[in-house]
Amino acid sequence: MNVVVGISGGIAAYKAVGVVRGLVLQGHDVHVVPTEAALRFVGAPTLEAISRNPVRTSVFDDVAQVRHVALGQQADLIVVAPATAHTLAKIAHGLSDDLLGTTILASTAPLVVAPAMHTEMWRNAATVANIELLRARGVTVVGPADGPLTGGDSGPGRLSEPDEIVAAALAVATRASSADPSGAEEARVADLAGVRLVVSAGGTREPLDPVRFIGNRSTGKQGAAIALAAARRGADVTVVAAELDGAVLQSLAAAPTIRVVPVSSALELETAMGAEAAAHDVVVMTAAVADYRPAEVAPGKIKKDDTGDEMTVRLVRNPDVLAGLVAARRDGQVVVGFAAETTEDRDELVALGRTKQLRKGADLLVLNSVGWTTGFGADDTSVIVIDREGAEVAEARGSKREVADALLDAVAERLVG
Ligand code: CTP
């Protein structure tokens, strides 16, 4: 994602280095635009080294590249940290007498400001009115925090911590990029903020030789829907992606905060999920994992002349990844499994799910029915969710996104409880 970090001239400007670094470490292309005053607190070479991009402050730099509007037009997200009372006033009133001002005016990207100033300035009616104006226009205001200030006094006015600013800004960008055009989703609160969720998605491929595999019809749509819904609700999301359908993978790319770990076979998925689960609070297994893999993988392409009219492939059992994750579950961690069954009958689906749950022991098991024409790749689905004891705790029908939110509601309840 292309991120512009504006820095205005306050003592907290030194902390902006942490914001820039946090964004760069998460793989974003960061362009720093300090005001003249900011450069009195933190030097351009530091900002260039940390952001890995040139730092300009005047509209008269690189005039040929029309830099005064180009940065804003290309930005996916603008973060101003620290935002002084003066800079907030300028943004609120559309003043553009420097590169930061023109960049913000020329941009339609989500804007996040992190104010920092003395308490009196924060409480001044002018600042209060400017903040209200900015909020009314959809600008996200992070902080300020309450605590010791530079003059030895204390109160609201401290710049929020850099990692909080980065997390809030990326959550805003994710919400904006996956926003429902109807706007209905906007109202959903960030109830999973700070929660780390890993979801496996797609279907594994078990190689027979360098060009062939045994696979399944899973596209990864449901796993991606869960990842996108969780990110929208503020969670820190990782997707362990087993051979996702191209369009599904692209839908994830639209959410810049979601980390994708590609895998292919069941054994690779087991290794990746084992490593990721240790660092996540919620573990969801939507991936269709092959229960068996070819006992031998031919080093070269298997030739008909060598195999004859019939060919037998010996398969060996793959590990049950979900059962392994349940066995390694940490205190407070929520592990969710899916159970796909080819039955149309509700009672039979629940009975099969309960039997499966005895083997799996997941905190939640999501039961859905699949068939030749239902389940895989479809946009709509219907599920029944059972708990560890086999009791029905939720039922949802609708788009995979709606079902994802219903499942996350059940997960959120368990995280609290
Ligand atoms: N699963 C897994 N490892 C496997 C097989 C399945 O982790 N080797 C997980 C799936 O990701 C899913 C759950 O277990 O969350 C149930 O998968 P499903 O295919 O419905 O069940 P199976 O364990 O394959 O049982 P059965 O063969 O009886 O349908």
CATH second-level architecture of the largest domain: 3-Layer(aba) Sandwich
As for the number of domains, it is 2
Using only C-alpha atoms, the radius of gyration works out to 26 Å
Proportion of strand residues: 15-25%
What's the β-strand tally? 19
Hetero groups: cytidine-5'-triphosphate
Strands side by side in the biggest sheet? 12-11-8-13-16-17-18-19
Question: Would you tell me the structural class of the helices and strands?
Answer: alpha/beta
> Main sheet, how many strands, which sense, barrel?
8 strands, mixed
Determine the CATH superfamily of the largest domain. CoaB-like
- Helix fraction, binned, reads 25-40%
pLDDT < 50 runs, ≥5 residues: 181-188
Which of globular, elongated, flat, extended, rod-shaped describes the shape? elongated
Distance between the termini: 36 Å
CATH fold descriptor of the largest domain: Rossmann fold
CATH class of the largest domain: Alpha Beta
